[in-house]
Protein 1
Amino acid sequence: MRIWLIQTGEMLPLTSSDRRMRTGHLAYELARRGHQVIWWSSSFDHMSKKWIEKKDTTISLFNNLEIKLIKSIGYQKNVSVKRYIDHWLLASKFKKQIKTETLPDIIIASLPDHHLAYESTRYALKHDIPIIIDLRDLWPDLFVDVIKRKIIKLLVKILLVRDYWKARFSMRHAHGLVTMMNYYLQKGSELSGRRNNKNDRVFYIGAEKSAIKTPKNIRKEIDFIVSSVREKFVVLYIGTFNRICHPKHLINSARYINTINKNNEIEFILAGDGEYFEKLKKLASDCSNVKFTGWINNDEISALLKIASVGVVTTNEPFIGFVNKVFTYLSGSLPIISSLEGEVKDLIQNEGIGYSYQYNQYEDLAEKILFLEKDRGLRNTMASNSEKLFDYLFDSRKIYSSYADYIENMNEKKP
């Protein structure tokens, strides 16, 4: 088959050390099966806020997998007018460029972005092509949720009425709606009016098993951090420092632990980058037990997982989600301490893989870290439970093999 993947928010796996995310895993699995895969993306990297290319270009990763990059204007803040304009322009250029392309057999379009998903859906309907919408987030609510005043929130919702309609249109007309968690499938079905559709599925994000990797491409500064904490109890945070998920409360927990236990053997490693990075480094300037790595590659993630004792997910507001770092920690057989609500909280409670805490209670987070540091037997039991759960539910090899099967079967049932 000739398959189009439409996704602009992921890091592109352009080298062997680049971390593969959801579309990356799927692209490689489909290409491995012999399908011709064309991945439409942006020439601006959403994760690093840097240009991959400053023009429209096509990158061939190997014979049957290519990435088509479309240039727009870029942006520096995730929630901003400039990002909205960037995505709108990108979708407009995409609409023009695909007019001269060879028709695909099937399209998998991520939502967000709702502009691209909408243009992909219109194109699919016009040419009787099956389209799968992969719902990643409840856009355009991202732009509304940051507003606190009710009257302004209402006005912005009115301004974005066309955007909400585009998102609903894409989900309503999809041959299949795919999501990364049950909550999103429920919300997507309600918003689009496609309840109990037999083609709708949940495929978790998942991760590659960390234990099977031998880290090779590691920078000296990361290797130094790994060596310096090897005998300590290591609390690990991996992720993008964005508005919803950044480790402010974890830094406060580190400071709190320092005040009540001067001789503690607990070290905090905060791995990642993002718009809050410099502000958080300044916040942690008085915490000798906190180390920042900056952005890390796939091998460096594996190296940190091997020496970590527990993985932490912090949010700065109540949030229902299944973020990448959950799967990453589980891939390294780590217990998890998390402030996420919904399915993650249920898994932690039901599977015995860690602790939940309220998002703004850094003292509670600190106490749970101290408890696991003291009771290593319990930590090891939780680590074993994490390993079993990962192997059963979240191994990316199994997830994206099933996702690829689903796509192949969907094409066989095309209208």
Protein 2
Amino acid sequence: MSTRRDFIASASAALLAQQSWAQAQAWPSKPIQMIIPWPAGGNGDALGRALQSQLSAVLKQPVIVQNQPGVGSSLALSKLARQEESDGHSLAQVTAAATINMTLQKNPGYDLVKEYTPVAVAGSLPLILVVSPSLPVKNVQELIAYAKANPGKLNYATAGVGTGGHLAAEAFKLLAGLDIMPIHYKGAAPAKVDVVSGDAHMFFDGIPSAMPLVQGNRLRLLGVATKTRFEGIPDVPTIAEAGLPGMDAAVWFGFSVPRRTSSEVANRYNKELNAILGTKESKEMLVKIGFQPMQQLTIPQLEAFTREDIDRWAKVIKAGNIPTES
């Protein structure tokens, strides 16, 4: 009897494998939905649309961008994770916000490790440290010295609790041992207004939105928050170079598919996206829109990268006593 059960189990497994292979050979059989969990016009939207036509060309199917913003990207990722259909025709943009929310939100509605397979990292949005021109500091070392000489008197602006800029500022604060307090705003625009005016003192922002104010002398740029300098502004030192070793904060952007998607389809996404992102033209495009190109990774490497990023930001959230959201 056990032999018969073993035979049936083996036959069933073989049939499922054959069906999976057949589906992969026929894939894609209809348009691809590229789900961007951010509003139109933002950094994530710009990146998705920049890759849209190239991915469509190699897959020989239209790639349709769908903006589904809400709850720091959790709304779209939760919805897709629960979607019954998992034939590989839905591709989700996933960013550092998704790894942050695994700790920051008590119930994000998805499990990035268990319910998603990462298929590519496209690039990172380097954060830069800018300060109000009214602050009497010209570099990172002077800022740290000034903050230590004036404990509790400086603040930093954020675009909201749990945003990349908020956690970057907390990481900076913890590494430097500073007593500075956050002021949370509803978005980056009002935060920058108050830093320009001097009502707030410092802010970690993305390069595309901050540089016009820096170039107009309305904000003072002290350093790039990543390990390496950004190719778009190569003369600006990293914060680590400028006096705070260990500082590394960027908002990375990548793509994932629901875990139920067949491994054949996930591997195809990985292969095609890595090929696109590895070209000189794509790297130049990324730098032009404010992103730092990232190394192309295999799916196992991407899974390790995801777990490490979840752990990294969990430590910052816990060390900074940042309250979790329901």
